[in-house]
Design goal:
The complex is a heterodimer.
Chain A (H helix, E strand, L loop, with lengths): L1 H14 L43 E2 L12 H4 L28 H4 L8 E2 L5 E2 L5 H4 L4 H9 L14 E2 L2 H4 L29
Chain B lengths: L8 H31 L11 H8 L9 H19 L4 E3 L9 E6 L8 H9 L12 E6 L22 E6 L8 H5 L5 E3 L5 E3 L9 H5 L6 E2 L14 E3 L11 E2 L5 H4 L6 H5 L5 E5 L6 H8 L1 E3 L11 E5 L1
Parallel strand pairs in B: 1-8, 2-12
Antiparallel strand pairs in B: 2-10, 3-4, 5-6, 7-9, 11-12
Helix pairs in contact in B: 1-2
Classes of the chains: A mainly alpha, B alpha+beta.
């Protein structure tokens, strides 16, 4: 320790002497370079999400044709839009479990064109591209879905990648999967009944 | 120059048997008809098989040593046997591994809810007995925060799953890259295929069950009985190294649905999973989903410290 003190004391003494180096030369390398390359991109108008770079190409299984009441304009074309948040009657879901009262219908559904969904920025989104609406909040799951760690690929592991949309598995109005009964347990082989735990 | 003599004992005996069968087939067929008529449908000789069929079974080679013609005749024999036994026309194929493909599996245990739909699909796809305990997938119910396999429960049957405080971990054959079962087999009835699948030649297996003892995952199962399957539910699309009807007294296990995956399809368990917890793909393809999971998620392998190099990863969100 004494030796260390002695070593560290030496430059302090030397610093009193005048040095040749000009004052402008930095003694440390800067922590980060803030060159022109690091400038943030110029802000652009909000547009539809174009996907993640490097994500493998995919096709979303279309779902629109399977919706019972679609197109919504069958009824809504003749109705005046009412932007007041309120509880709706059938055929709409009686309660919106999703979002704990922070969102309501017209945050995801277009007010003018009911056959379209919308982003928070107001961009129209087709029902078959519903993942773009979900991905605004659930961006982590959305990214993993793009790359294949979330969601489900159907039919094949090879060739065209066809994946389910968010809304195939999650009810958009009550997204959590509900507990249900499991398939029957494996049969216990004769003579091994005692091993079955209560 | 004389033709090289085939000094291989089994092939030589098989050739002798063919000659004998050609002579004996007429007599044997006649005898079977007579016996059937006399006893009113009692079990005919050689388990309902002709002499030629029985000798064909007896002299059948190990899969890896079979010539293409021998494989074709073995496949045809399997189809004929299934027709006799179940009354159903099945197709048995020998799909070769795809070059440049090594299969891998990843399973998200934070998403598995223990519905056991994968088990049901596997039983149907792989022609497993409906009442036997041979099920390739075992879904373990475990206490949250523990990893003790001995205290896990796979007979769980609550009214609703997932049970709060529990998590579910399906275990099946890990298709190890360094498989202890292959080393344990005394007759080389099991081996690792080029696409990473650890295959079994059910006709070569002697049922000694050493491999079951060697497997640290309990993935291998011995069928004590002929699988009981309603003929209408039989999966007629079969593969030699996959889900073809197996004889009694051999060891079988998950084979990543060779009959499907070697043709580009997903395995039956992946297709049945309602939560998307299962991810199957080609480990050699850097753009595959499984490679993304391995590179970006927290993955672990079961009993990795044993050095078996499983190709089955578990991961969490």
């Amino acid at each position: 320790m004494l030796l260390l003190l002695a070593v560290s004391a030496t430059p302090a003494i030397a610093a009193d002497a005048p040095t040749d180096a000009p004052a402008s030369v930095p003694t440390h390398r800067p922590l980060r370079s803030h060159g022109a390359d690091d400038a943030p991109p110029a802000p652009t108008a909000p547009g539809a999400f174009k996907g993640y770079p490097g994500a493998p190409a995919f096709k979303v299984v279309p779902q629109k044709d399977g919706l019972i009441f679609f197109p919504c304009s069958n009824c809504h074309a003749a109705m005046q839009p009412n932007p007041m948040p309120r509880l709706l009657n059938s055929p709409h879901p009686a309660a919106l479990v999703h979002g704990a009262d922070r969102i309501w219908c017209l945050d995801c559904h277009q007010t003018k064109d009911r056959d379209q969904l919308r982003t928070f920025a107001g961009q129209p989104v087709d029902f078959n591209d519903a993942h773009q609406v979900c991905g605004q909040c659930h961006f982590r799951q959305h990214k993993e879905w793009y790359f294949g760690a979330h969601g489900k690929r159907v039919a094949n592991w090879k060739g065209t990648r066809e994946i389910y949309n968010c809304t195939h598995c999650h009810d958009p109005h009550a997204p959590a999967l509900k507990p249900r009964a499991p398939s029957p347990p494996p049969p216990v082989r004769a003579g091994l009944e005692g091993q079955k735990k209560p | 120059m004389t033709e090289p003599i085939d000094q291989y004992r089994r092939r030589f005996l098989g050739g002798l048997a063919k000659v004998a069968a050609a002579g004996g087939a007429v007599a044997a067929g006649g005898a079977a008809v007579v016996a059937g008529a006399a006893s009113g449908g009692a079990a005919p000789a050689w388990g309902g098989s002709t002499l030629r069929e029985m000798l064909g079974d007896f002299f059948q080679e190990q899969y890896q040593r079979m010539t293409p013609e021998e494989i074709q005749s073995a496949l045809a024999r399997i189809e004929r046997k299934a027709k006799r036994k179940f009354g159903v026309d099945i197709t048995c194929e020998d799909t070769p591994p795809i070059p440049g493909v090594v299969f891998g599996y990843a399973l998200n245990i934070s998403r598995c809810k223990g519905y056991r739909d994968c088990v049901e699909a596997c039983v149907k796809e792989n022609n497993l007995g409906r009442d036997s305990q041979v099920q390739y997938i075992r879904v373990l119910q475990m206490d949250n925060g523990t990893m003790n396999l001995e205290s896990s429960e796979h007979y769980y049957d609550p009214a609703k799953v997932p049970v709060p405080g529990k998590f579910y971990m399906p275990v099946q054959c890990m298709q190890c890259d360094n498989p202890p079962c292959v080393k344990a087999c005394p007759v080389q009835a099991t081996w690792r295929e080029p696409d990473g699948i650890v295959a079994i030649d059910y006709d070569w297996c002697i049922g000694c069950r050493y491999c079951m003892d060697a497997c640290p995952y309990g993935a291998r199962h011995f069928n004590w009985t002929e699988p009981k399957i309603p003929p209408a539910e039989l999966n007629t699309h079969t593969n030699y190294l996959g889900n073809r009807p197996r004889p009694k007294g051999v060891v079988e296990k998950c084979h990543f649905c060779t009959q499907r995956t070697r043709k580009g399809q997903q395995p039956a368990c992946q297709e049945a999973c309602p939560t998307g917890a299962r991810i199957f793909g080609n480990l050699m393809d850097p753009n595959s989903e499984i490679r993304y999971v391995l590179a970006n998620k927290k993955v672990f392998r079961l009993k990795e410290d044993l050095g078996t190099e499983p190709k089955f990863w578990y991961f969490t969100d």
